[in-house]
Design a protein that fits this description.
This protein is mainly alpha-helical. It has 30 helices and ten strands. Helix content is 51%, strand content 6%. The chain binds iron/sulfur cluster (2 copies). One iron/sulfur cluster binds next to helix 12, helix 17 and helix 18. One iron/sulfur cluster (SF4) binds at residues 305-311, 326-327, 330, 393-396, 398.
Length: 734
């Protein structure tokens, strides 16, 4: 029996945790050190919380079960992090290793200072203690593998999306130091106690025990290792204290801020922007132009960013070579907070604070120069397609799109400075009810049809109101989709009608372009018109109309059942009401190409509203059609480049997004699909893109069709066609 073996453990027959071995009596120093570290950390966190609280709105505490579920899924479950193969392995190893060691340390503390001290009962005994030791050693090895891979990636692979800074080097160094000193500490204890427990339960700490055997070969005097152990114990404890303090300011701060950000992230439909109250005359500021115009959550976003670069890697605007990088947007918010921390007066004595605190209007954030970097430039803000890929990929649920739209709102509503062409589209919509300034009838697209299209003004009550939208009414290519849907509804015997000339643009694109005033001014009369008729459901073939009518109209009194045409057509096929068929060697206008299809996901249909399967289902059920998926599909689909009012702006893309996406579609049709989405095409190829086998790129959005058509013309790619799913179905039921 070794000297000092705890009485509560009894004999050495059963494994029993001997906490504070070799450092008995030093608890007071240890706990004082840890308390000091925690107090310093809490002080720093309190100051940062006060910076966030300078923002608008309050921290939300509603929907607690949903918020807790999000923390379990995204923070503890690492749901999004593990989707990324390389980053997932690295972060998974480090995170789960770190978490297991943290829980292990907490258990040992509870065992020593609570259950044994107050209840004369040990937890860490017997088989549970064996399992505890083996598990912690296994997770220590995961931790080491994760750290080694992280070092290799940062030193050798050096992916563009990561941030390379002294802060991150310090973090890696610190984690190495923590895990290695912890393992060595265990080995020194096992080497010193080898005579007593080495052949029994000591082996369950297999990593530490193996290291201890190496130490004993080198020197078999337990007293030597006992001395080393005491020194290493203090070295490790000081490392832990430094680690705790650095949680407030080093890149490790994401350990605290990320779960907080996940917990407080907004709970509302993804496709719904927060309305501005334009009636309230006391409001002097619309959108974000100054630090304190951001909401509390937007400011918290800035600190929660882990700089992982997943958003950057998924961003079409970044791929295209525009000045926009969503990671920089998040980091710019953080930099702006740091820039103005003195002005905010946080952490200062109240007497000093008065002289520092200045009005929010004096803290501009747009084009702010900070440490040689220009923050939140209008050029970057206008390059966003609002595709939501950044938000979708972000492991800590940062809401980049909301912040970008808020800055646009400031630029348009406060500074009156939209990009030139967008300003023209605003004026067109105000004058003609559509951004094309087309004054022709919204019934013109029906002229080539062989049947009359019913209008609501005559019918008053129908089962289905078909909302055509501006593209479907005026753009010649999109008019084909309108006619295809009309043919399908007729063939299926649906009772339907359109608004015809009562329809006008709701200006959803203007809302994304910062012009909330135009959106509300345009949408309210539409809602009034719709509320004057009776119908069961609205169908629309434009995902932008679908999104705003479904998710945003309810804020203004428009509550309808809205479905996308792909959902409705898939239902008609499933019910057997229409039977498109391309089998039996059929060679009509669409020809062989229609039998070989890849589908391009629209962002506003897919990522915004989770409609991924209906367009695929309806294509897959058509006899004779074969589908192939692109490398980036469903929630990882790549934008066509047209959303967020981009269609109405002059773009400055070095590698146009629509051309990148069309190249990816052709690659898929050619059977060239990389195993890992990280290897998908990111630049427009310098050599001409060739089609091996004629095929079709199916779309479910008029703007995607317009953008991909335009790419096809620019790239002069032959033997493929860009067709809306409705056209494919309508051709198949001829
Ligand atoms: S919404 Fe799309 S384009 Fe805009 S920043 Fe995010 S990923 Fe980039
Ligand atoms: S915003 Fe999110 S995805 Fe982008 S770098 Fe930060 S944590 Fe990563």
């Amino acid at each position: 029996m070794p000297d000092g073996f705890p009485e509560i453990c009894g004999s050495l027959d059963e494994p029993c945790r001997w906490t504070m071995w070799n450092v008995e009596g030093q608890e007071l120093y240890l706990y004082s050190l840890m308390l000091l570290a925690v107090l310093l950390l809490v002080g720093r966190l309190w100051m940062r919380l006060n910076v966030w609280l300078k923002g608008q709105d309050e921290l939300p505490f509603d929907h607690l079960p949903v918020r807790i579920g999000r923390v379990l899924k995204y923070a503890l479950g690492q749901y999004r992090i593990l989707r990324d193969r390389t980053g997932g392995i690295i972060h998974g190893g480090i995170f789960f290793g770190f978490t297991a060691l943290f829980i292990g340390t907490a258990l040992a503390t509870i065992d020593q200072d609570i259950t044994a001290h107050f209840f004369d009962q040990k937890i860490l005994v017997g088989w549970f203690y064996r399992f505890y030791e083996a598990t912690l050693d296994a997770f220590t090895l995961f931790f080491i593998v994760g750290l080694a891979y992280a070092g290799y990636r940062r030193r050798v692979l050096r992916p563009e999306k990561l941030t390379y800074s002294s802060g991150w080097n310090f973090v890696l160094f610190q984690l190495w130091l923590l895990v290695l000193t912890g393992l060595i500490l265990e080995a020194l204890r096992l080497a010193a106690l080898d005579d007593f427990i080495g052949d029994t339960w000591g082996r369950w700490s297999f990593a530490g025990w193996s290291l201890a055997q190496g130490l004993l070969v080198f020197n078999d005097n337990p007293g030597t290792w006992r001395l080393w152990h005491e020194g290493m114990w203090w070295f490790h404890s000081i490392q832990v204290a430094v680690f705790i303090v650095s949680l407030a300011d080093s890149p490790l701060k994401h350990i605290i801020y990320s779960p907080l950000n996940i917990f407080f992230s907004p709970i509302r439909p993804r496709g719904k922007l927060k309305p501005l109250d334009l009636e309230d005359e006391s409001i002097e500021q619309f959108g974000v132009g100054h630090l304190t115009d951001f909401t509390v959550l937007q400011l918290m976003d800035g600190d929660a960013c882990t700089e992982c670069g997943r958003c950057q890697a998924a961003c079409p605007a970044y791929m295209a070579g525009t000045p926009l990088n969503p990671k920089k947007v998040a980091m710019d918010i953080r930099r702006a907070m740091n820039h103005y921390s003195d002005n905010l007066g946080v952490g200062l004595h109240p007497a000093q604070k008065e002289s520092f605190e200045i009005d929010g209007a004096a803290m501009p954030v747009i084009n702010l120069a900070h440490d040689g970097i220009t923050l939140l430039t209008p050029e970057a803000m206008w390059a966003c397609t609002t595709c939501f890929a950044c938000v979708q990929e972000c492991p800590v649920l940062i809401q980049h799109v909301e912040s970008i739209v808020d800055v646009r709102r400031h630029l348009v509503l406060m500074e009156g400075a939209p990009p030139d062409l967008l300003g023209t589209a605003f004026t067109n919509a105000e004058r003609s009810g559509n951004p094309w300034n087309d004054r022709s009838s919204r019934l013109d697209w029906t002229k080539p049809l062989e049947f009359d299209v019913p209008v609501m003004a005559e019918k008053k009550k129908v089962d289905v109101l078909y909302w055509i939208g501006c593209a479907g009414s005026f753009d010649p290519n999109s008019q084909k989709t309108s006619r295809a849907v009309a043919k399908i509804l007729n063939a299926a015997g649906v009772e339907w009608a359109i608004l015809g000339d009562e329809e006008q643009c709701h200006c959803e694109w203007a809302r994304r372009g910062g012009n909330e005033f135009l959106y509300q001014e345009s949408s309210l009369p539409i809602i009034e018109t719709l509320n004057g008729y009776e119908f069961d459901v609205i169908i629309t073939h434009c995902p932008h109309c679908f999104n705003t009518m479904k998710n945003e109209f309810p804020d203004f009194g428009g509550n309808y059942t809205v479905v996308h045409h792909s959902q409705y057509i898939a239902k008609l096929i499933a019910e057997g009401k229409i039977k498109p068929d391309y089998s039996n060697g059929r060679s009509d206008e669409m020809g062989a190409a229609i039998r070989h299809i890849t589908y391009h996901d629209s962002c506003y249909l897919g990522r915004y509203n989770d409609v991924y399967e209906s367009p695929r289902d309806l294509l897959k059920t058509i006899p004779g059609v074969q589908m192939v998926e692109m490398a980036r599909s469903k929630d990882r689909g790549l934008c066509c480049g047209g959303g967020g009012a981009q269609v109405w702006m002059e773009t400055h893309q070095h590698d146009p997004v629509n051309q990148i996406r069309l190249t990816e579609a052709v690659n898929a049709l050619n059977g060239d699909v990389p195993y890992d989405v990280a290897d998908a095409v990111r630049k427009v190829p310098e050599t001409p893109v060739k089609v091996d086998k004629p095929g079709t790129v199916a779309t479910a959005c008029p703007f995607c069709t317009i953008m991909l058509d335009s790419a096809q013309q620019s790239m002069q790619i032959e033997d493929i066609q860009i067709r809306d799913v409705a056209e494919i179905v309508a051709e198949g039921i001829k």
